[in-house]
Amino acid sequence: MGQESIQGMHGLDEKRLEKCSRYQDLLHRHAMDIEEFVQRIYPIVEKSDNYILRSGWSEYFTTLQEVMDLMGQYEEGIPVEAFEKLMPRIDRIEELKQTIEKQAARAGTEQKSAAAAESGFFGGCDTLDKLEKRYRALCKTYHPDTEAGDEDTFKRVTEEYEKRKAEING
Which residues form the domain of 150? Predict the structure, then answer.
């Protein structure tokens, strides 16, 4: 999908040309990254009951497909005016992808938290050194100040750390 896919761009003023090119590049990036995006995010979506993530996932693909279908209706390239009418939908595609990324990070952390809590955060930590290293690593992941942090999980990690530390110190 190059510059030729928008008909009449050569006659545009510089500002409109730049805007059309920017949106065209954005749409192209979404189309090219789709396989990697699906491989990375779908396993999280599949296991999640997060409504925002699941509905965003569905809307993202529906909207992207609609825009691509509309673009594909023009053999000689989509007219500039028609493409400009698609720009709000392209904005929506970008918003949805960002929302999906954030929600997937949160859901992925929750899934990891649940799995870690089931097996114990500090399983196999039989020395104080191992325990402290694991605790620092878990803090980097679950601390509420991090992007994917979770306050409840962080509290459980800290409580389990203190309990395990007391056991090791005897």
Answer: 120-170
- Spatial separation of the C-alpha atoms in residues 31 and 96, rounded to whole Å: 14
CA distance 107 to 78: 38
Q: How many residues does the chain have?
A: 170
Select from 68, 84, 66 the least CA-distant residue to 9: 84
Please write the tens of the pLDDT for every residue from 87-117. 999 999 999 999 999 999 888 777 776 665 6
For residues 78 and 7, the answer to whether their CB atoms sit within 8 Å is yes
Measured CA to CA, the distance from residue 107 to residue 84 in angstroms comes to: 35
Question: CA angle at residue 70 from 68 to 71, to 5 degrees?
Answer: 65
pLDDT, mean over the chain: 87
Quick one: 98 and 166 in the same domain? no
Q: In a 3-state reduction of DSSP, which class is residue 2?
A: coil
Residues 81 and 128 in one domain: no
Domain identity same for 90 and 60: yes
Domain count of the fold of the chain: 2
Predicted TM-score (pTM) of the model is 0.64
The letter for the amino acid at 8 is G
Helical (H) or strand (E) element with 7: strand 6-7
